[in-house]
């Protein structure tokens, strides 16, 4: 699979403010909040994440879909990246946040096969 940018995320300790800004700016709609404080944007195009439970950082990042998240993390680290949010397997997807050598945050992810 080609590495495709196909998802974005806004992380904020104040997700209501993020929605009040981005909603009117781009006419985005938001889904219901999931238990960890995550709301999908425009169906499945992106998400707004309440970051208060993980340190309260703010970010706006893109995600690149890869075939193997752990391999992408290792390759990125070998090229000078660092891990901002370690590998997560939430049952339906795997993902991680990385920082490139200049400190720009980005994500790698893959959907898991549903049985």
**Ranges with pLDDT <50 over ≥5 residues?**
none
Kindly estimate the percentage of residues that lie in beta strands according to DSSP: 35-45%
Which structural class do you get from the secondary structure elements? alpha/beta
Helical residue percent band: 10-25%
Quaternary structure type: single chain
Q: In angstroms, what is the radius of gyration? A: 14 Å
Largest sheet, strands/sense/barrel: 7 strands, mixed
Order of helices and strands: EHEEEHEEE
Strand order of the largest sheet: 2-3-1-4-7-6-5
Shape summary? globular
Count of DSSP H/I helices: 2
Termini separation (Å)? 21 Å
How many distinct beta strands? 7
Residue-averaged pLDDT:
93
Describe this structure in words.
The longest helix has 12 residues, at 15-26. The protein has two helices and seven strands. A hairpin with a 4-residue loop joins strand 2 and strand 3. With 115 residues, it is of the alpha/beta class.
């Amino acid at each position: 699979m080609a590495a495709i940018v196909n998802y974005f995320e806004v992380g904020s300790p104040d997700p209501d403010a993020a929605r009040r800004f981005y909603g009117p700016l781009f006419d985005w709609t938001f889904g219901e909040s999931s238990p960890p404080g995550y709301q999908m944007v425009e169906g499945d195009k992106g998400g707004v994440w309440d970051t208060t439970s993980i340190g309260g950082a703010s970010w706006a990042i893109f995600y690149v879909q890869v075939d193997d998240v752990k391999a992408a993390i290792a390759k990125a680290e070998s090229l000078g990246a660092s891990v901002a949010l370690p590998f997560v397997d939430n049952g339906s997807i795997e993902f991680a946040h990385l920082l490139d050598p200049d400190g720009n945050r980005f994500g790698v992810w893959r959907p898991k096969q549903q049985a």
